[in-house]
Design brief:
With 394 residues, this protein is of the alpha/beta class. Helices cover 28% and strands 22% of the residues. The protein has 8 helices and 18 strands. Strand 12 and strand 13 form a beta hairpin. The radius of gyration is 21 Å and the shape is globular.
Length: 394
């Protein structure tokens, strides 16, 4: 992970912008790529996987995951509080996830939810720094209750967390944005219920998987759409917005998976996090770092992958630098960064290609895989969906 130094500007892009989920983190797995914040999901660390019987906690996976993160120097950890154990469930449905009967249910007694939140926050006070209420709560396989019920659970969790660990952040339940009908059904109602309860969260949460053919431009449209809903609900401007899970090319909505490889994979990762700066997303957690490729992922992030190089490019191009804004000129996007007297531009075509003239001071143009070309000012460049870094003379 990058560390601050004397050349880091006061308004530097924080490493926490670049989040990760890690397969096997509970078993000492760790990415070779740099990142600054960590989310636990699919690690056996949810409520239904810990409190197997009322009052009996199997903390092993969460203990090991936290200890592994701390040993690697990670100090920004997000735990997802849902899902419901079978013994506490008010309803059992088919196809729930995790595959624990009742996992998607509202607890039949919210006192059990209170006790769980109290137990986990007390045990990990000062070590787990953020708590997300629920995962993809607009999808029935993850949550089959009403938005108003989840808002009440959010408020109860917020009060407990802030009483035990005031520094910990509370993150609202996330919706998956790729299915518009479920967004329309759930998100306005959940936001409206949170508004009535005084917005008992520090950040709102989204998941921005586009459909299987979607790219960062499609993700940007999802972000803009949900921000309209957030504004309409009257959310305070002080609330952060976190994208707690994303990738590209995943199958679904009657589309097969799309494999995204090469410089395109690295470039989509770079664009994702610079788009966060453009659109006011405070951090995003990539799903998922693995040790070997996975059939369902469009972009594979593992040791030696092109995606790994995308994260190294981010560490070099973005983290710790001052973000000085982006400009859209037709289909061309140019974003300005500076650090320690050096200035550079990251440029790409939002879709397809765009023509761009190298600005005054241009010396070198590099892609996220570190393929570089000496380039003089005034040179015409055909931008593609893969971003390039334009190095300028100091």
């Amino acid at each position: 992970m990058p560390s601050a130094d004397s050349t880091t500007p006061a308004n530097a892009v924080p490493s926490s912008l670049i989040g990760m989920q890690v397969e096997g983190v509970e078993g000492e797995s760790w990415p070779s790529a740099p990142f600054g914040s960590l989310r636990f999901w699919d690690n056996g660390t949810a409520w239904s996987q810990i409190e197997l019987q009322k009052g009996e906690f199997k903390w092993d996976n969460l203990d090991h995951a936290v200890a592994n993160a701390e040993a690697k120097g990670m100090t920004d950890i997000l735990e997802v509080l849902g899902t419901t154990p079978t013994w506490a469930a008010s309803k059992v449905s088919k196809g729930e996830y995790p595959p624990t009967p009742g996992a998607a249910s509202v607890p039949k007694d919210l006192a059990d939810w209170d006790a769980w939140v109290t137990a986990v926050v007390t045990k990990y006070k000062g070590r787990i720094t953020s708590y997300e209420i629920w995962n993809e709560a607009n999808l029935k396989m993850f949550f089959n209750g009403k938005p108003e019920q989840l808002a009440e659970m959010t408020k109860r969790a917020y009060d407990i967390i802030k009483a035990i660990d005031p520094e910990a952040k509370v993150i609202a339940a996330s919706p998956a944005l790729r299915l518009k009908s479920s967004v329309d059904r759930f998100v306005p109602a959940y936001l409206g219920a949170l508004a009535k309860l005084g917005w008992p969260v520090d950040a709102l949460s989204i998941h921005t998987y586009p459909d299987a053919t979607g790219d960062p431009a499609a993700r940007g449209l999802l972000i803009k759409g949900v921000k309209e809903l957030i504004t309409a609900a009257g959310a305070p401007a002080t609330l952060e917005l976190w994208d707690t899970e994303l990738n590209y090319g995943l199958a679904g909505l009657n589309l097969p998976k799309t494999d995204i490889t090469g410089a395109k994979a690295a470039g989509f990762i770079v664009r994702t996090y610079i788009d966060d700066l453009r659109y006011g997303v405070n951090r995003s957690y990539w799903y998922i770092w693995t040790q070997t490729p996975k059939d369902w992922l469009g972009i594979q992030a593992y040791p030696g992958s092109e995606a790994e190089q995308g994260f190294f490019a981010l560490d070099n191009w973005v983290t710790g630098a001052s973000y000085d804004g982006c400009t859209e000129n037709g289909n061309a996007v140019t974003c300005n960064f500076s650090k320690a007297g050096a200035k550079w531009i990251v440029a790409w075509a939002e879709t397809g290609t765009a023509q761009y003239t190298a600005p005054e001071g241009t010396q070198l143009v590099c892609d996220p895989l570190a393929n570089c070309t000496e380039t003089a000012a005034g040179t015409g460049i055909t931008l593609t969906e893969v971003p390039v870094r334009v190095y300028l003379q100091q």
